[in-house]
Design goal:
The structure holds 2 protein chains of 2 kinds. By secondary structure, chain A is an all-beta fold. Helix content of chain A is 0%, strand content 51%. Chain A is globular and about 40 Å long. Chain B is built from no helices and 11 strands. In chain B, the strands form 2 sheets. In chain B, strands 2, 4, 5, 9, 10 and 11 form a 6-stranded mixed β-sheet that branches. Classes of the chains: A mainly beta, B mainly beta. At the A-B interface, β9 and β10 of A face β5 and β10 of B.
Chain lengths: 116, 111
């Protein structure tokens, strides 16, 4: 399968600071990237969908000014958690898919964010 | 009503047995169906996808899809301790790439 690389895998930051998470598709063009968060023992919750070159579409209840998503190229999307608070601590996972119907999504390794 | 319902588990099976996982979905326009496996602290990895009614087999895994009943299942034959994980079913609605996930079923294979 295709490879999606997510970085960093773990990050600890202080409250009030911002953290950027990168998601790269290494061997295919990712026209669409998805960002999820997952709390312990819970399922994945879709935060937003980003298409290359356009603004991200956020799911209901997700603050777009807090979770900034940029998808400037077909191989890179970034999620920036701004002014992080302890309640933002979670497991963030990106996935990427290419063009066409029935296209499976490939997941990055995930980023464990801890805000102290 | 939730979009995707999974049998809640946890499910414990002895080594060598068959583990059966079930998932129902509410959107009749759903197009593609996926089963993911997630180990603790890791991101999901795709096990199988299925688009057409019927069975699809891949090694020890068999996915079954019944669109009329809005039901998809996963059978794990000859279960191994390494199969112990949380299994997530997911689907994409018609005309969309967004995955909707079920809550997951945790499977434990007892040696």
């Amino acid at each position: 399968g295709a490879v999606v690389s997510q970085h960093p895998s773990r990050v600890i930051c202080k409250s009030g600071t911002s953290v950027k998470i990168e998601c790269r598709s290494l061997d295919f063009q990712a026209t669409t990237m998805f960002w999820y968060r997952q709390f312990p023992k819970k399922s994945l919750m879709l935060m937003a969908t980003s298409n290359e070159g356009s603004k991200a579409t956020y799911e209901q209840g997700v603050e777009k000014d807090k979770f900034l998503i940029n998808h400037a190229s077909l191989t890179l999307s970034t999620l920036t958690v701004t002014s992080a608070h302890p309640e933002d601590s979670s497991f963030y996972i990106c996935s990427a898919s290419g063009p066409g119907a029935h296209t499976e999504a490939f997941f990055g390794q995930g980023t464990r964010l801890t805000v102290v | 009503q939730k979009e995707v319902e999974q049998n809640s588990g946890p499910l414990s099976v002895p080594e060598g047995a068959i583990a059966s996982l079930n998932c129902t979905y509410s959107d009749r326009g759903s197009q593609s169906f996926f089963w993911y496996r997630q180990y603790s602290g890791k991101s999901p990895e795709l096990i199988m996808f299925i688009y057409s009614n019927g069975d699809k087999e891949d090694g020890r895994f068999t996915a079954q899809l019944n669109k009329a009943s809005q039901y998809v299942s996963l059978l794990i034959r000859d279960s191994q301790p390494s199969d112990s994980a949380t299994y997530l079913c997911a689907f994409t609605p018609e005309g969309d790439y967004k995955l909707s996930f079920g809550a997951g079923t945790t499977v434990t294979v007892r040696a």
